[in-house]
Specification:
single chain; mainly alpha; Helix Hairpins; 3 domains; two-stranded antiparallel sheet; 7 helices; 65% helix; flat
Length: 489
């Protein structure tokens, strides 16, 4: 069975992979140097009924083990880079869960990458300590908003009650020196006058109650404002920590990008370039697909207007039949105004439909010209038939021709002209239906290609992410190892 991974999956290792996990028979993952303790020999000799490990490969497949030492041919080469064994077993080395060879200069990261890793080590503790700061800041902001709402409500209540107190003061002031006539005659012949003490006492009591409420609310407002000030200060501190974390995160991303730029292999750069190309193709194809759909809608609108022209022509024909039934000769525009108006409307609709169809065709062909040629090369079968659309010469009516036909042949001439116009309109509709069918086909094909490009782009991004992660982990592992050795010294 041919293995899925031909080279060791350990970062920056080009040895042949001959060991795999027990639950993945036949799939090689790591080489002899970097294998894990629970791994087993995955690639066996391909000679029938031979269970010896496969150690030799063909010259054109140096990383894919095929046969053992006993069954190899003369033109084969050793697959693994470690010392070969002529025995039937490969003696495994001591287990090494994390193997970082700091003495092997070939696979060592550059000094610039290690400096970036050291800077990352310095920022990592502070960055990790701020993991939950955004969540904490968001929750604290809700508390701050609630306190602001409470303070606004206190101010509103105090203002509302204070307005009531002001009104009571005005009412009490209006009662000063005011007497009421009880309507009873005094011995002097005048009514008995006295003050309305009940109303005054009621207002004074109400004023006292509202004043006490205002005092209580004012005290609550001061407490809430004090709490609001403390919470605001705490929120400012949290916001500062959030900005600090964002700055650290941005710097870590810069370190990551710089490290990848420094250490990226040719394969990784090719993958990154392919991701960029696929994104560009996806954007271009999507925009072209949008234009094709718009053109499709415009062609459908042109077909609908042609149908309206056909109905106008039918109405004109009905008017002409009425002229024949009344034995009117039909000569002269004034003798058949309804028929002439429908003919004018028919001609206007056909011209409008043709203009819309031409605009749609121009939009469609312009979109096709903007489509990158790489898409056609990468997906030749799917993109077959996706191209320019040509519109044949569509018929449109002429009022003077219709008028002259009516003048020359009367109602019979009009009837012949309308039959001819209906035939031309139906031909126009058939041509538009063919173009709409072509648009449908192109939409289907381009939509399929768009989905394939999107899927391929996702796969490439995942592969790039995996390789970048492994590369960064390797650089960090080497930097950690060197840092530990330095501390020991």
């Amino acid at each position: 069975m041919e293995e899925e991974k031909r080279e060791c999956e350990f970062p920056r290792c080009s040895n042949g992979a001959i060991f795999g996990f027990p639950d993945e028979p036949g799939i090689s993952r790591l080489c002899e140097t970097h294998k894990e303790p629970d791994m087993v020999l995955a690639q066996l000799c391909q000679f029938p009924r031979c269970t010896n490990p496969a150690l030799y490969s063909f010259a054109d497949e140096p990383t894919l083990a095929r046969f053992c030492d006993e069954h190899k041919s003369d033109d084969m080469v050793v697959t693994i880079t470690s010392s070969s064994s002529s025995s039937n077993e490969v003696s495994p080395p001591a287990p090494a869960p994390v193997s970082v060879d700091t003495k092997n200069k070939k696979n060592q990261p550059s000094e610039a990458s290690l400096e970036l890793a050291y800077e990352y080590f310095e920022m990592k503790p502070e960055f990790e300590s701020l993991d939950h700061i955004e969540k904490e800041s968001s929750e604290h902001q809700k508390k701050l908003d609630n306190l602001r709402s409470v303070v606004r409500r206190d101010v509103s209540d105090i203002h509302k009650i204070s307005k009531g107190i002001d009104k009571l003061e005005i009412d009490l002031k209006s009662q000063e020196g005011k007497w009421i006539n009880l309507g009873t005659r005094s011995p002097l012949g005048m009514g008995i006058l006295m003050k309305d003490n009940d109303k005054v006492e009621k207002w004074q009591k109400e004023k006292q109650e509202k004043t006490e409420v205002v005092q209580v609310l004012d005290g609550q407002k001061k407490d809430h404002e004090s709490a609001l000030e403390q919470v605001s200060q705490e929120q400012e501190r949290l916001n500062g920590l959030v900005e600090t974390r964002k700055a650290l995160e941005a710097r870590i991303q810069e370190l990551r990008s710089a490290c990848l730029e420094e250490e990226a292999s040719g394969d990784l750069r090719r993958l990154q370039s392919r991701v960029v190309d696929h994104k560009r193709m996806h954007v271009s194809l999507h925009q072209c697909l949008v234009d094709v759909r718009h053109a499709h809608a415009m062609f459908s609108k042109a077909l609908h207007i042609q149908a309206q022209a056909a109905r106008s022509n039918a109405v004109a024909g009905g008017a002409n039949v009425g002229q024949i039934a009344t034995r009117n000769g039909g000569r002269g525009i004034g003798e058949s105004p309804g028929e002439r108006l429908m003919q004018i409307r028919r001609n206007k609709k056909t011209k409008e439909s043709i203009l819309i169809a031409k605009d749609a065709c121009d939009r469609l062909n312009t979109a096709q010209h903007r489509l990158p040629n790489e898409i056609r090369v990468a997906y030749p079968d799917e993109m077959n038939g996706v191209g320019n659309v040509e519109i044949p010469d569509l018929w449109h009516g002429s009022f003077f021709r219709d008028f002259l036909a009516g003048q020359a042949g009367g109602n019979v001439g009009d009837a012949i002209n309308q039959v001819r116009a209906m035939r031309k309109i139906r031909k126009n509709m058939q041509e538009l239906e063919k173009i709409i069918a072509v648009c449908n086909s192109q939409e289907t094909k381009m939509d399929s290609v768009e989905k394939k490009i999107s899927f391929a782009c996702g796969v490439l991004r995942e592969e790039v992410h995996t390789q970048e992660k492994e590369l960064l982990e390797y650089v960090i592992a080497v930097a950690t190892s060197q840092k530990s050795e330095t501390e020991k010294k």
